[in-house]
Amino acid sequence: MPKISVVVPVYNTQQYLDKCLNSLAYQTLKDIEIIVVNDGSTDDSQKIIDEYVKRFPNKFLSFVKPNGGLSDARNYGIKKATGEYIGFVDSDDYVNLDMYESMYKKAKEGNFDIVVCDVRYVYNDFSKEVSSLVLNDIYNKDDVKKQMVSIYPAAWNKIYKREFFDTVLFKKGIWYEDVEFLYKLLPYVNTIGTVQKPFVNYVQREGAITSTFDSRVYNYIDNFNGLVEFYKKNGLYDEYYFELEYCYVRYLYMTFIKSACHFDKKEYKKACIIAKKNVLEKFPNYKKNKYINGLSGFYLKHFNFVTQKLVYLYYNKR
């Protein structure tokens, strides 16, 4: 059994793929399995994948499937994985060579369910480090629950015990699937280890989901409404009420609204109305939430026409 399986979904990323796969081929962790899932690419991505399979036949596994989207490709790779832990790398990113050795060592030291690391955002002419916001190792469910309100919500700066994927997979056909996945998973997690080093190099490129804005931005709202139903259906709603309430309001009034700033004014106003309608329907008393404090808390409590206009002006004058 490999110590770690790394799932790499690929769709038309030939420009970035060699750098990504090279960073995995030379990991200092030798007992590693790299599962590359070509999700129906129409460029030369498969030629690059084939070259790595040829050069590293004991490390790389290649699979080709019809296009089904990022979540579908990840789920496909998960089913092929045999590692003790599973990690994910997007094919336009790359990782430090000691990432998985360091994270596996941490996982075994504390028998952690999940291990997280920090992230480096890579732009054309500069980079910046971003914390996972998990500042200490976590050894009990109560502290995992508290961490839900701040944890960096990406799938690819973490490794997970493989058995968790018997319970939760990625939802197909949506944007922001990492957030949806993570908040479904965390109620089942007992321990989290942290390595405070920016192992993941998160490449900021034109055309990526995070820099493209269309009506699928509304998936933020759909996903969180789905999470509310998931928590209710699985008997988690009362136990995680305050954490779910805070995350729901924060994502709709901050992350979703920030994304909606790239709409025209008419569509932006519509987005604000929809966000507010959903918040007040799901959590009408959210202003009493114990996690809402500080400057961001002031904004959340005073989300109205004036603050909406100021946010729109700020992001469209940058």
Q: Uncertain regions: pLDDT < 50 for 5+ in a row?
A: 208-212
The backbone outline, from C-alpha atoms, is globular
From the structure provided, what is the oligomeric state, counting identical versus distinct chains? single chain
Query: What is the count of β-strands?
Result: 9
Notes on the structure:
By secondary structure, the protein is an alpha/beta fold. It has helices at residues 14-25, 45-55, 70-80, 99-110, 141-147, 177-185, 219-233, 241-260, 265-282, 294-301, 305-316, and strands spanning 4-10, 32-39, 60-65, 85-88, 94-95, 114-122, 127-130, 158-161, 192-203. The protein folds into two domains: 4-209, Spore Coat Polysaccharide Biosynthesis Protein SpsA, Chain A; 213-316, no CATH class. The chain contains eleven helices and nine strands. Helix 7 (219-233) packs antiparallel against helix 8. The longest helix has 20 residues, at 241-260. The protein is globular and about 60 Å long.
Question: Can I get a quick summary?
Answer:
The chain is α/β, with parallel strands linked by helices and 318 residues long. It contains 11 helices and 9 strands.
Characteristics:
318 residues; 2 domains; 9 strands; Spore Coat Polysaccharide Biosynthesis Protein SpsA, Chain A; alpha/beta; globular; single chain
List the helices and strands and how they pair.
Layout: E1 4-10, H1 14-25, E2 32-39, H2 45-55, E3 60-65, H3 70-80, E4 85-88, E5 94-95, H4 99-110, E6 114-122, E7 127-130, H5 141-147, E8 158-161, H6 177-185, E9 192-203, H7 219-233, H8 241-260, H9 265-282, H10 294-301, H11 305-316
Parallel strand pairs: 1-2, 1-4, 2-3, 6-9
Antiparallel strand pairs: 4-8, 5-9, 6-7, 6-8
Helix pairs in contact: 1-2, 6-7, 7-8, 8-9
